[in-house]
Amino acid sequence: MNENELKQIIERIKNRRIELGLSYQDMQDATGISKSTWQRYETGFIKNLGIDKLDIVAKILQTTPSYLMGWDTDKKAEIDTSGIHTIAAHFEGEDFTEADKEDIENFIKFVLSKKDKKK
């Protein structure tokens, strides 16, 4: 990985963190990497973020490792909706159709997209 690629990864992490309104403290709490280390990553003082941390960072930043690496331009991660169908299937004894479950999933995606726009 060359210097420009590394700068791109750092910028994507920093920009996404700021977009989501996450502080260094939030990043420390989620990853166990200290606030000062995050600051040194973002200023380029530390030049390597372990590949094992990239997946964790991507999840925190609600994106994908591919986006952070510059292989993908879509910064939003796919929303994990696997639990939606389970919840809907057991909600107060009501039976939901597949169409109902799809509506619930779409509503959740809508609410999440509004949250992102407010930040």
From TrEMBL:
CDD domains for the chain: HTH_XRE
Domain HTH cro/C1-type, chain residue ranges per copy: 13-68
GO molecular function, one term: DNA binding
Any Pfam family matching the protein: HTH_3
Top-level lineage group: Bacteria
PROSITE patterns: HTH_CROC1 (PS50943)
InterPro entries hit by this protein: Cro/C1-type_HTH (IPR001387), Lambda_DNA-bd_dom_sf (IPR010982)
Protein name: Helix-turn-helix domain protein
